[in-house]
Amino acid sequence: MKVLWVFAHPERRSLNGSLMDEGLRELDRLGHQSRVSDLYGMGWKPVVDADDFRRAAESGDRLMVGAEQERAYASGRLSDDILAEQEKAAWADVLVFHFPMWWFGPPAILKGWFDRVFVQGFAFGVEDERGRTLRYGAGGLAGRRALVVTSVGARQSSFGPRGVHGHVDDVLFPLLHGTFWYTGMAALPPLVAYGADRAGTAEQRAYADRLRQRLRTLGTAEPLPYRHELGGDYDEDLVLRPHVAPGRTGLAAHLRPGPAPAGGC
């Protein structure tokens, strides 16, 4: 398989840095191809602006970001750094997003990568032959898998089903469902390193072992069983039909029934 590893940590000597090194070695050992986007190392620009579209600032026209991204993508006018990352994403079978969790989400530099790379026409906003918009299980990145590797300072129990921080799959729902699944990528259960700030040698080795185990099943592990938008569970207003998950609300209602894959560890 071909794996793109998007790394968003400012310190290569961190636990996350050592885990990425272990992961890349394991991918090589398994015979997979890999490419790396080290966002801090690249000096990645995280903000969308008119330069992304090779658009003259003095044009005077109002900047409509979504429409401008789509036009620039269709006409090949996106900036070179965006085009390079889109080429990597299109090349990959699996995308690994590796970052420390800050304020319950990825660092700004990674959010900016999504903002600038996953543009309309490339990652979303595509249609089928019937003119239906393809998203939530379909879309520009359909057929790919996505894995989050992240670290938190808190203990695992506090991110459990009754933990004060909320269940980790719910905390990461905007990324797992709203970014990966929305663009068609199957979201694998996240791998979380808990207590990262206090991890000693034994804990670091344990997390490296867990990462290697997860990488061995990149192509076979069961993804999170999110419902397909066009699978019949949602009505024309994109609301779950009354007979689907009756009485259930919230994020879990968007998971198909059955045992969910084990994740978060």
Automatic annotation (TrEMBL):
Record Gene3D superfamilies: 3.40.50.360
Domain of life: Bacteria
The protein's name in its UniProt record: NAD(P)H-dependent oxidoreductase
Pfam families reported for this sequence: Flavodoxin_2
SUPFAM superfamilies, per the entry: Flavoproteins
Protein family membership: Belongs to the NAD(P)H dehydrogenase (quinone) family.
Flavodoxin-like fold domain mapped to chain residues: 1-214
Keyword set, alphabetical order: Oxidoreductase
InterPro entries, A to Z: Flavodoxin_fold (IPR003680), Flavoprotein-like_sf (IPR029039), NAD(P)H_dehydrogenase_qn (IPR051545)
Lineage of origin: Bacteria, Bacillati, Actinomycetota, Actinomycetes, Kitasatosporales
